[in-house]
Amino acid sequence: MRADLALAATLIANLLIPVFLAVWVAVSRAHTRLEAALVALVAGTCILYLSRAGTVWSWVGNEWPYVFAALYVAALVVLILRVRQAPWWPSGRPGAWTQIAVLAFVVLIFGIQNVAVARARSVSGPGVELTFPLRGGRFEIVQGGNSRLLNHHYGEPGQRFALDIVALGPRGFRAHGLRPAALDQYQVFDMPVFAPCAGQVIDLHDGIPDSLQPEDNPERLAGNYVTLFCDGHTILLAHLKEGTVAVTRGAHVADGQIVGHAGSSGNASEPHLHIQADEGLVTDHQTLITTAVGVPMRFHHRFLVRNEIVRN
């Protein structure tokens, strides 16, 4: 219930705020071109931030950020036509400079946020090149990036560059309906998960039921999982479907070999695949998800972040 309410609130914010801002730009009573420019910048930087950092687009359709961009451009044209003859600077109107200062401050705040999002979309330094672990469709990264702004895993060193991945249906939605109660209504549920590299199975767990209620047991946060040791890195594939782990401890696996199926076990509020890479050989599972040293993953030389689409 808490997850449903949070999603509903996030949906309302992400869908209504851009519309409100576009309308605000169109009907703004800006008295000067400077004020009009700041109104446009406030709306533009906020809409840009929501479009890039929002977490709801695969629930309602990934075309919405483009719709908001079109609405914003239309509103901007209306604003420009209205103020094209207005002076640039206020001339003694009470409170004018205070209003301009407030608008400039808001532009600065959202500007900083957008710069931070841009920086979170790239990473430097060593990492590991992997094969994408899901196939046969379109997939979206719902958590991923080099910052908390795009990746809620970032605070845990072992999960710093982890990805959460869902599948998209023909219409671009990750599920049939909004937060459906049936696991098989989620596109990714029961899809085969492929080894992203050739290596050895160093740990695994199966037998945890799939659920839409996150597991409170801190020792079972990853649910059913497989960990591989590949080329000096430990790779975790987590939240697998109960009863589908298809490898054995100590076995050698080939790149692209099926290791299980995507599920919703452990600390998962919906079916998805969690993947992370950590430095060295990490045999203790609790260390792996907490204090290990997470490293960036690249797929076909791409560092993937939230809202990116992968066709594979």
Descriptive key words:
single chain, 312 residues, alpha+beta, Glucose Permease (Domain IIA), 2 domains, 8-stranded antiparallel beta sheet, two-stranded parallel ribbon, 6 helices, 12 strands, 32% helix, 19% strand
Might you state the CATH topology name of the largest domain?
Glucose Permease (Domain IIA)
Largest sheet: 8 strands, antiparallel
Structural class: alpha+beta
SSE series = HHHHHEEEEEEEEEEHEE
> What strand line-up does the widest sheet have?
8-5-6-7-10-3-2-12
Name the shape in a single word: elongated
Percent range for β-strand residues:
15-25%
Helix content: 25-40%
User: What Rg is obtained from the alpha carbons, in whole angstroms?
Assistant: 23 Å
Can you tell me the CATH architecture of the largest domain?
Distorted Sandwich
Number of strands: 12
Termini, distance in Å? 34 Å
The unreliable regions are: none
| Helical segment count | 6
* Average pLDDT, all residues: 93
SSE order and pairing:
Layout: H1 2-27, H2 33-53, H3 57-60, H4 64-83, H5 96-120, E1 128-130, E2 138-143, E3 163-168, E4 192-194, E5 199-205, E6 224-230, E7 233-240, E8 252-253, E9 258-261, E10 273-279, H6 285-289, E11 297-299, E12 309-311
Parallel strand pairs: 1-11
Antiparallel strand pairs: 2-3, 2-12, 3-10, 4-9, 5-6, 5-8, 6-7, 7-10
Helix pairs in contact: 1-2, 1-4, 2-4, 2-5
